[in-house]
Amino acid sequence: MQFIETRGNDGVKPASVSFSEAILSPSASFGGLYVPQSLPAFDAAFLEKHKNSHYKTLAMDFLRSFGIDIDQEVLQAALDRYDAFDDPKNPVPLSEIEEDCCVSELYHGPTRAFKDMALQPFGYILSKLAQARNENYLIMAATSGDTGPATLETFKNQANVKVACLYPEGGTSDVQRLQMVTEDAPNLKVIGVKGNFDDTQNTLKALLASEDFKEELERKNIKLSAANSVNFGRIIFQIIYHIHSYLEMVRCGKIAMGEKIYLVVPSGNFGNALGGYYAKKAGLPIEKILISSNVNNILTDWIEKGEYDLSGRELVLTESPAMDILKSSNIERIMFDKFGAARTKELMDALASEGRFVLTEEERALLQEDFAASWSDDAECENEIARYVKKGYMMDPHTATCIKAYENLREKPLPTVIYSTAEWTKFSPTVAKALGHPVEGDIEALEWVAEHANVTVPPMIRGLFEKPIVHTVVVEKEKIKEEMLNFL
Ligand SMILES: *Cc1c(COP(=O)(O)O)cnc(C)c1O
Q: Which of 67, 332, 415, 486 could share a disulfide with 1, CB 3.0–4.6 Å?
C-alpha cells in the first residue's frame, strides 16, 4: 500500500510514499496530508471471519490486509500494548444505555482517554522504525489536555525518540497536568508556559520556524516528526475499533450481521470520525456518521451548510476542551476523498488566505451522504450527564455532546453506537457540577462523585496525586527555546 497527498504533488517530494515514510515525515506537498491510495475491503466475508475474534486478532488481520511496510513482529508487539488496558481480551467494551443505543468506551487505556487507542501502538512502531534506520526523532506537542499525556505515556523510555510537551499553565485540569508533570523518563520534557493554549501553540510554531533551533536539530542529527492526527500512523488504528464496535453490537444481539447502524462521534480534529468514514467506505454497514460538537460548532456548519468559516469566529473555552477546535485537520482527508486533490488544494488555500471556503450544492450533498451533525452547549451536556447518572450510566462531558445527535439526527430507527472518548475521572469537576455539587479541585470532585454516583476512580488516576512531580519548569514564552536547547 502506497500513500498519496491530499493537495497533489509539488514535483519535489516523491509522488507516493510507503507507510513508514508517511508516518516518519507526515507533512506532504503544499502543506497537505498523506492518505492511502486505496482501501482494502472490510466486507461481509471479513466481518463473518471475525465474528468471534479478540480485538488483537481482528487488528492484526486488518493491518495485514492494509499491506503496510512494518514487520509482523513489530505489529504484534505494538498491538500487545492493548494488554495493559483494563480488559486485555476486550480493550473497547460496549455498554447499553438505551434499548437501541450502546456506548463504545474508547478510554480504558493508561491515560483514560481515547488517544491511547492509537498512540499506544503508534508510539511503539515509530520508535522501532527510528531504531531500524538508526535515526533520532523529536516529537513536539502543544497540548490543552489529552494529547500530551497520551504522547508522553506511549514514548516514555522508547529508544531514538524524544518528546517535548508544552502546556498552558492553569489551562488544563489537575489530572491532565499531573499526568504530564509526573511522567518520569530521560527522553521526556514537559514545560509549562505562562499564557493560554493559543500562546502555547504559537510559541511552538515560532520555535519550529526559528533558524537557530533548526540548526541545533541538524547539528545533533535530530529529525522532527508529529504525533497528532495529521499522522496517518494514528488514523490507521482508529479504523479498527469501528469494525470491533460493529461486531460487538452483533455479539450482544443488538443487530444481525449485515444490518446497518448509526455511529455518533464527538469530534474535534475529526480523526475518530475519519476512521469511521474509511470503515464505512471499506464495507462496514454504517448508515451514517453523526458528528457532535460543542459550541465551537464549525463542523456542524461544514456538514449542514457546506461552509467553513473561521473569519467570524473566536475559540470558546468549554467543558469539553478536547473539542475546542476551529481548524479541524482531518476534514481535508474527507474532502480529498470526495472532491479530489485539485479541489482540496483550492479549498484549503482559500481557508488559509480568506479564512473561509464554501462548498457547492453537489459537494455538500456528497458530504451528507455519509455525515450529519449537531452540537450541544455546556448546560445541555451537564443535563445529560445528570440524567444518565440517574439511569445508572456515567459519561464524561465530551460523550455527553452525543446524546442530542443520537436523539435528533437519525432518519431511520436503526441501532446506534455512541463513542465515549474519555473517562469521567479526567473531567471530574464538571461532572460534580453537573450533579449539583460544584467544587474547586479535582481531588475533591473525584472523591465526591465516586461516593455519590457509585463509580470508582481507577488506580492510575488516584495514584497521580501521590506521585512525585518531576517536571517543575514553568516559563515565559521567551524562555522556551533555551529550555528546549538544554533538553536536546
Ligand atoms: C481528542 C479528543 C476528541 C476529539 O477527537 P478527534 O479525533 O480529534 O475528532 C474528543 N474527545 C476527547 C476526550 C478527546 O481527547
A: 67
CB 291 within 8 A of CB 298: no
Phi first, then psi: give them for residue 91, nearest 5 degrees: -65, -20
Neighbours of 212 (CB within 10 A): 9
Q: How many A from CA of 427 to the centre of ligand 1?
A: 14
Diameter of the chain by CA atoms?
62
Pocket of ligand 1 (CB under 6 A): 113-115, 146, 229, 266-273, 322-323, 398, 421-422
Per-residue pLDDT reduced to its tens digit, 281-301? 999 999 999 999 999 999 999
pTM: 0.96
pLDDT tens by residue, 39-89: 999 999 999 999 999 999 999 999 999 999 999 999 999 999 999 999 999
Q: Which residue, 202, 141, 139, is CA-closest to 167? A: 141
Gap from CA of 266 to ligand 1 centroid (Å): 7
For 67, phi and psi rounded to 5 degrees? 60, 50
Residue range 80-113+233-466 forms a domain whose CATH class is: alpha beta
Q: Is the pLDDT of residue 198 over 80?
A: no
| C-alpha cell of residue 305 | 451548510
Secondary structure (3-state) at 4 = strand
Partners of 94 in the beta sheet? 104
Between the CA of 85 and the centroid of ligand 1 the distance, in Å, is 19
- 322 CA → ligand 1 middle, Å: 5
User: What is the residue with the minimal CA distance to atom 2 of ligand 1?
Assistant: 322
